[in-house]
Each structure stands twice: as structure tokens, then as C-alpha cells.
Specification:
A 6-stranded parallel beta sheet has the order 4-3-1-2-9-10, sandwiched between helices. Strands 6-5-7-8 form a 4-stranded parallel beta sheet, with helices on both faces. The chain has helices spanning 17-27, 49-65, 76-81, 83-94, 104-110, 126-131, 133-141, 155-160, 167-183, 201-207, 218-231, 233-236, 253-264; strands at 8-12, 33-37, 70-73, 99-101, 119-124, 146-151, 189-192, 213-215, 245-249, 271-272. Helix content is 47%, strand content 16%. The chain binds D-glutamic acid. D-glutamic acid is lined by residues 12-14, 16, 42-45, 75-77, 125, 128, 156, 194-196.
Length: 275
Amino acid sequence: MQQKAGPIGVFDSGYGGLTVFKELIRELPQYNYLYLGDNARVPYGTRSFETVYHYTLECVNHLFDLGCNLVILACNTASAKALRTIQQNNLPKRKDYRRVLGVIRPTTEIIGDFSQSGHIGLFATQGTVMSDSYVIEVNKFFPSVNVHQEACPMWVPLVENNEHLSAGADYFVKKHINQLLRKSADIDTILLACTHYPLLEPKIREFLPDHIKLVLQGEIVAKSLTDYLMRHPEMDELCLKNRERDFYTTESAEGFNVKAKIFLGEDVNAKHLGL
Ligand code: DGL
């Protein structure tokens, strides 16, 4: 099969992956990127395994068709519910050089180092929490660390509807902080294990006790991708390096442009992708 270099694909159910994208372009600005948000079908966090797998695979295949050889699932829910099946069942059938990576593995590899007490809290979608992926993966790298999980089903809708900094968001932010902290008095580190949640960071910090560290994933994922591309020069060669960035959404491009600006702080010109 003819191998042709292409952009790095970055996928999320909506805008959340842009918090990872922002760190990727900061850490690895030389590459071309193609972002795809499945805004027409967000949220994924409340959907079944089968649905998240089906939606994610469909979007990954679109990114392959658009020329990406390497796709990052910048979405914890998709990483928890679809990545393994895609890596173990779908990619081997293609018999080609394309690869899909997620955000959970790079995070769990180092998250234990942030905590002194060995008690880490995490906020995530219902889907990520119910998959227990973080508990299982953290246990592999840090067997003595305890993970306390809290699902926050209203946080993604708040972000997607640009209500994350409104007074109305306070109730849901306080509610989940209190519920999580009730699970263990020893939590000294909290991971935002949903790529939408960094937009809520100012609100979370407002209500979080000062001694608790807040960990965001974007930088961790960007550093891990740097390392991956160094270890895989054959894949690095298949990633174009002209600093071009393209954005696709399964919803309206106009709406995407307005909201993406809030995430990225710069103008974007998205294209619509029909499913
Ligand atoms: N941004 C996604 C994540 O990291 C989930 C958002 C959703 O529920 O679709 O989990």
C-alpha cells in the first residue's frame, strides 16, 4: 500500500478535544492537524458502549479518509469505551500503518506522581466512570494509589452551551466537588478526566480547598505524543509538517467557529462533515 504523509487527526465528541489540541499545537507546532468534533451527536458520556464505539469508529474512519495516519482520541469517553476495540479489532483488519491513540494511558502513567497521600480524585463523564478505565489503568502503574471517581453529567452540557462560567454553573460545580471530597478526606489531587472540563477550571478552583492540586490532561497528552513520535520515526515521517490546521464538525460550521474561538482564543474556519 502506498504510504502518504498526512495531518495528525484529533477527535472529540464536541469542543472538549480543543483543550488538548491547544496544548498539541503549543508543544508540537510544526505538524499539520485536522480536528474533528462530532458536535451533532455530543454528549457521548451518557451513551452505551456500543453507541460510543460505533460513533468513534465512524469518525476515525472519516479522519483516515481525510488523509490522517495517526489519530488522537482527545476524548476520555471514547478512549475508555472504543479505543481498545479499535486497536485490537479494527486496525489489524486494515493491515496498514494507521494508528489510533487515546488520552487515558498517558495520563495514568504519571498521575500517581502528583499525589503525596495516594488518594486521587477524578471528575469524568458517566461513561468514563462506569468503564472503570482509570481505576484499572492507575492500578497497573501505581498499585498503592486509590482512585475516587465522580461523574458530572451536567458539566459537558454547561460547556457545550457556553454556560460554564455563568452563576448557574456554580450549583453543579459545588455539588460534584462536595460529593467527591466526601468519598475520602485524603484526596490531595484531582484530575479533570474529561477534555471539556478545563473550561470549568476557574469555577472549580473557586470552590476547591486550596491544598488540593488540580491536574489537567492537555499538557500530559502533548508531552506523551512528543515522546511517541520520537520513539516511532516511521510514524513521524507520515505526519506532515507545514503548520496547517483544519477543523471539521458534524454540526453547523458557523456555530463551531464561534464556540471554538472560546476554547482556542483564535479564529477558526471549520468545514461541515456530513455523516
Ligand atoms: N470530552 C469528552 C471526554 O473527554 C466527553 C464529552 C461527552 O460527554 O461527549 O470524556
